[in-house]
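We close this part of the discussion by returning to an individual protein. The sequence in question and its structure tokens are set out directly beneath this paragraph:
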Amino acid sequence: MSKTSCDGCGRTVTVSGGIATLWSFGSDAGTVGTAITLELEDGSSHLLCYPCIEAIPDYPTVEDIERLEQVDDETSRLETL
């Protein structure tokens, strides 16, 4: 698994796939990670950790992604304006 940063809050996340899981044929093959890429309706894509995904609305915009902030290691929230 490779490590990178969440586009929302900036915390370090792991992305499943790649050489580390090449020979994993079990039930979790290719599904273990702490982030997923979310494609928005405007065509943009963003790598988000699960706390950020839980914090955004059902139909997020780029502005919602930009307003995400890290609260602690387990939660994220939208910055109040």
